[in-house]
Amino acid sequence: MLNDVRYRWKSRTSFHLSVPTLDIAAGDTVLLLGESGSGKSTLLSLICGTILADSGQVAVAGTDLARLSGGSRDRFRAEQIGMIFQQFNLLPFGSVLDNIQLPLHFAPERRKRAGDTKTEAQALCTALSLPETVLASKAAALSVGQQQRVAVARALIGRPPVVIADEPTSALDANSQATFLDLLFDQVQRHGTTLLMVSHDPRLAERFDRVLRMEDIASIERRVA
Ligand SMILES: Nc1ncnc2c1ncn2[C@@H]1O[C@H](COP(=O)(O)OP(=O)(O)OP(=O)(O)O)[C@@H](O)[C@H]1O
């Protein structure tokens, strides 16, 4: 939930983002569309608490992010939010199991929910149609499509209530994209997870409960210093 939020990147070209109000209901799947440079990733960073609003309020699962100290905000993010990035951000020389377990190191509640983490990681891999023996493989040895599924398993382990995905399909071909989204949706719907996914591809819209367009929810301003 965002209220009257303003944020400015202070760089040579300063970029101002204002979001009057944005409310996402728990369990909704939401697609955020917008052109390159319209501030989609900036908005996701505000929601994840990796950057803090200059003014206004950003609340996730009822918690005002500005009220948390830096360390508790990092822990809150690890507990509450599973993240899938455009470039997957896997540790290439780590095993698939290491990669999937990574967020649990910073999130004791999430670790508890995951139970036996190896069994949970294996179950997620099976649900995501990854090969039986994948857990021991080095992440770098997998195909791009397989790496992206590992990134999904990492985001989903321990059932965080919110999953945020920043253009997760941009490195995949059309067939792999469709399979990837089927698997992701199957998982988030099974667990009632809130999904916020950024894309610039409007063809994905029909899969989602709600579609937001940056131009409708935010205003931006660029100034060259
Ligand atoms: N780390 C940063 N430091 C300074 N300015 C930044 C930073 N990240 C983004 N910006 C500024 O914010 C603007 C919006 O970028 P942002 O990445 O949020 O847009 P986007 O809609 O996600 O674009 P894309 O679809 O190309 O990823 C950029 O034009 C840039 O000027």
From TrEMBL:
Taxonomy, superkingdom: Bacteria
Domain ABC transporter: 2-224
GO annotation, cellular component aspect: plasma membrane
Cross-referenced InterPro entries: AAA+_ATPase (IPR003593), ABC_transporter-like_ATP-bd (IPR003439), ABC_transporter-like_CS (IPR017871), ABC_transpr_LolD-like (IPR015854), MacB-like_ATP-bd (IPR017911), P-loop_NTPase (IPR027417), Sigma_54_int_dom_ATP-bd_1 (IPR025662)
A molecular function GO annotation: transmembrane transporter activity
Sorted UniProt keywords: ATP-binding, Nucleotide-binding, Transport
PANTHER family (alphabetical): ATP-BINDING COMPONENT OF ABC TRANSPORTER-RELATED, IMPORT ATP-BINDING PROTEIN
Name under which the protein is recorded: Putative ABC transporter ATP-binding protein/MT1014
Species name: Roseovarius albus
